[in-house]
Amino acid sequence: MSMDPAYNPYIPTFADDQAHGGSKSLLKGFVKVVCIFFIVLGALGLLQTLQTIGGMLFILRMDEKQFNPMKIFPYAMALAIVVGFINFVVSVCQIAGGVLGLKQKRLGANLIRFVSGFMLIFKIAETAYGCVVNYLSIGPAIEQTMKQMPQQPANAPDFATFIEIGMYIAIGLAILMGLTMFFFYLFAFLSFSKKETLSQFS
Angle, to 10 degrees, between the axis of helix 106-148 and the axis of helix 29-60? Predict the structure, then answer.
């Protein structure tokens, strides 16, 4: 019986890999989307951290007579710093989880599941904090804006009402975004808790 001289019996073939379970299926649908989305969310979170630091520096240099939203209630500044630090840590974990997840590493899947479970609670607290600060800021923000505006004629539009409506719309959008992210993290947590999903990682 003739044999191919280039044939090496010690090199495993594709059939051998399948027989020994060596092949690994590609990430499926929602799982891959979550990994990519986690990387995007992490990058946006790091940008938000830089924005928060810049905002803090700006607030510290504000005139004492100007309205400072970080003094709207006691310990508001401390809470903002804590929230910003947590967002920074979460963003780093999201990027790491997404990158490792795309490489089908079990550590990436575990990071995604852990972060999703944590964010189910934190997202509610973060949204509530932001909405409370914005709501308490409506009156002082309108008062300061009207002081800085030039004297308006008697028949001029009521800018105070426009500002108030705009701030309420901002609060509504923040709640809507918070709910959207809550359900995303819920689906991610449930999906990455399934054995079928975890079997795609090694």
Answer: 40
Task: Supply 51's token pair.
Answer: 């924005």
Instruction: Kindly state the helix (H) or strand (E) to which residue 164 belongs, with its residue range.
Output: helix 159-191
Instruction: Compute the distance between CA of residue 48 and CA of residue 12 in angstroms, rounded to an integer.
Output: 49
Q: Where are the alpha helices (DSSP H) in 103-158?
A: 106-148
**63 compared with 85, residue with greater pLDDT:** 85
- pLDDT above 90 coverage of the chain, percent: 41
Tell me the C-alpha distance between 121 and 84, whole Å.
16
197: number of CA atoms within 13 Å, CB side?
A: 22
Asked if residues 69 and 131 have their Cβ atoms less than 8 Å apart, the reply is no
Best CA proximity match to 116, nearest among 134, 85, 93? 93
The reported pLDDT for the residue numbered 152 is: 63
Cβ atoms within 10 Å, residue 91: 21
Task: Enter the tokens of residue 30.
Answer: 């929602």
Long-range contacts of 104-110 (CB under 8 A, 24+ apart): 104/24, 104/27, 104/200, 104/201, 104/202, 105/201, 105/202, 106/198, 106/201, 106/202, 108/35, 108/201, 109/192, 109/197, 109/198, 109/200, 109/201
